[in-house]
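Schema walk-through. Below, the input block comes first and the output block second. Nothing else is stored per chain. Lengths vary across the set, and this one has 139 residues.
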Amino acid sequence: QFVFQKPWYIALAGPPGSASIMQNPNDYEGYLSIAEPDVDDNTVDNNNHQNSKTTWKNAADGWSALYALLYRPMNRISEITNIPTLLIAAKDDKLCRVEFAQQARRRLLAASNKESDVLILANTNHFDVYKQDSTTFTK
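--- output ---
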């Protein structure tokens, strides 16, 4: 019976304190900036997370939300051994902070992965690296 139930959805991105998966400061605006060209913040229907100008929906099914909440890549970082590893972090990222990349590198080094480094992109946030016009980054 559970398998055939209608899926439930939660907003993928929203303002701080909202019922959404990504709710850090600037997550909502950042996600809208990469979603689709015609997405307009003022036309989003909050009841179904649908934008009236596009087919894009600010929604994820419940299983995706659960997976996102349980996703802990740091718990498996030590499994990466004997492979040169470059960790890239955006300096202004509020979702995946630079400190996490630096901590991951320390764990890689502890796991005998001697060839690892962290590249920190200045003046860059979590969503900037996904934009098509972001062709140049500085270290």
